[in-house]
Hints:
Layout: H1 3-25, H2 33-42, H3 51-66, H4 83-93, H5 112-119, E1 122-127, E2 130-135, H6 137-142, H7 150-165, H8 171-175, E3 179-181, H9 188-203, H10 210-220, E4 221-225, H11 228-240, E5 256-258, H12 267-274, H13 286-289, H14 291-295, E6 299-304, E7 310-312, H15 319-328, E8 335-337, H16 338-349, E9 350-361, H17 363-366, H18 371-380, E10 381-389, E11 401-408, H19 412-417, E12 419-425, E13 431-438, H20 439-444, H21 456-466, E14 469-471, E15 476-480, E16 483-484, E17 492-493, E18 501-505, E19 510-511, E20 514-515, E21 521-523, E22 529-531, H22 536-539, E23 543-547, E24 549-550, E25 555-558, E26 563-564, E27 568-573, H23 581-589, H24 591-601, E28 609-610, H25 613-616, E29 620-622, H26 629-653, H27 660-683, H28 688-695
Parallel strand pairs: 3-4, 3-6, 4-5, 6-9, 10-12, 18-26
Antiparallel strand pairs: 1-2, 7-8, 9-11, 10-11, 12-13, 14-29, 15-27, 16-22, 17-21, 18-21, 19-20, 23-25, 23-27, 24-28
Helix pairs in contact: 1-11, 7-9, 9-10, 16-18, 23-26, 26-27
GO biological process, one term: DNA restriction-modification system
Keywords: DNA-binding, Methyltransferase, Restriction system, S-adenosyl-L-methionine, Transferase
GO molecular function: DNA binding; site-specific DNA-methyltransferase (adenine-specific) activity
Amino acid sequence: MSKDLLDEGVQKILDRLIFIRVAEDREVEPPTLIPLIREWESRKDRNKIPLYKSMVAKFRELNEIYNSNLFSEHPFEEWEDHSDATKRVVDILYGKKGYYEYDFKVIPADVLGSVYENYLGYRLSKSRKGMTLDIDARKRKEQGIYYTPDFIVDYIVKNSLKPVLDKCKNINDLKKIKVLDPACGSGSFLIKALEVIYDKYREFGNPGGVYTKLTILLDNIFGVDLDSQAVEIARLNLLINTLDNRMRLPPLDKNIKNGNSLISGSDEESKKYFGKNYRDKKPFNWQEEFPDVFKQGGFGAIVGNPPYIQLSMDAKQDNDLKKYLLDKYQSSMGRLNTFGFFIRLGIDLLKENGILGFIIPNTLLTQDYYRQLRETILNYCIISNIVTFQDLPFKDAVVENIIIIVQKTKSERERNNNKVIISYVNEKYEILSRKKINQRIFYESKQKTFNIRAGQKNMILKQKIEEAAEPLGNFLTINQAIALKHDRSKYLFDKKLNANYKPVLDGRDITRYFLCWSGKYLNYDIDAIHSCKRQDIFLSREKLFFRRVGDRLIATYDGKQFYALNTLVVMNLKEGIEYNLKYCLALFNSSLLNYYFLNFLKSTKKVFSEIQARQVAQLPIKIINFSKPADKAIHDRIVDLAQSMLNLNKQLANLSVNSNEWLEIQTEIGRIDKRLNAEIYKLYSLTSEEIAIVEGERKSKAFLQVSKL
């Protein structure tokens, strides 16, 4: 027996048993499973008619009643009998022998949601003792199997679907609304869509009931998923939510389908990319699968939580898929993630004025890789809402998420005049704050970034900071420091035993303008180093280090050839650059570039998050024309002040804390730091009002009177 058939059979059995339990508790069916158990237990010869075969016979009866694929014949019905195991499963469903008893009558809308997350994250395999169920974390990660919390489903569906429904004038209009989840999983988004449309039916005077729900299922609800088991669960889940009396149920195979949403086209096109076994990719031709939908121009609403699967451009796996996706969606992204393709697909599948609502990684907002995708959204859509979270909505997931709601429109005027609603939500799912940002600001930024923190004044200031400036990456090379393959304690020592032992710094060893070596040496073993095997970046005459983790930019200068662990990042002046390295240090540590980093480069609101090299490389460094005396003079003043900060911090470290001399130097450090910031504000030609924005105050303490914002 193949593994796929085994998985499919187990899934079918579970689906049927859960359906029967729901039907029993809702009094749609009389007690069914317990009588089967009792009858089997009462037999003298239990092997004559095994329990499993009695249950299969009951499935045949139910198929005559409900006429749904749920109970249609399947190869698992011919499996060898496991009566004891069958009884144990039934005992669990009835809360016997220490198991929790569950009232299936009041089953939540998506009872199988968490089952989907957990069961599909396991695999069945054969062992000497029979069958075992093992965790399949790889499958869960690769296919993006994560159950979406109810409050997110509720928010997305209501904010995507209700505006579409509100335009309907009668029930006939409602019947024309088509809702899609292109990666439907267990069907949680579609169940919520069913509820919202059902409520709208009631508003129009429809009495409701099971027939109305079934009408909605067939007319309005559509889903696709790559995982055939997920499709089965979604169909069952939707049927359970309509079950109210004994009646024939629709098979739903024309609405909820198995396929790869991202791959479509003719057989010839598929063969071109995937060869003769192209059907293994499960291509899904939207126009053929849902012809009635596209006769109306497409879907009115698309909702969901698409998978976030990273496809590296450098890696050799799935090259055929990567080439197909790049060609199909005309993407030039350096980093491919399936969520981006789902957004592009969704926009293509929407009808004019249709709405899409997804929960996706927040990397869409600012990362360079997604510039083209952001531009596509801005060229085709109004962005209605962006919701950002303080904490991860998904346990075990490693990305921060946002909800984005967009509406497709051809009107450039509507897009330019649109105001995006930005909401911040805490771990209790309470909205902390809301604000509006003009969508045009996103479009006018160089990288089309969706900067959700900045208002119009901030964006104007951003443009000013970037004038006559170049990215820091044009001046400095930026390298991650040494990452060890094994426990670092095996390679760190308090004494230098031979020439292979190098003085090494950690993140805790540096602060702004100060380096305090802890006395540790690294046994430099090239075979033990995972990354940064180049020694030349450490042996250069001078370099800068900055901390990888923190709530602000922190860097210092090194002229003593220290090595560093990967809690630090190394920056070296590029060949041919005339600038003094301490000029770059001063700008890096300044209030101005910290403001720029926190508002326009940092992709998370969390404190002490990773400061990435690619973000730092984008910091705007003011260009100096050394042929102009005024330019050279301000460059040199900034360098001198940076040197003073280095000297003063070194002196401070040798004094007793809170001694008179320590307090004097601390005061002088504060004074020099203000002078340094003032010179940098002058360098970038900031006004007093713009300085106040950077300082985060109504008035700037470093300058004279400042006007109110």
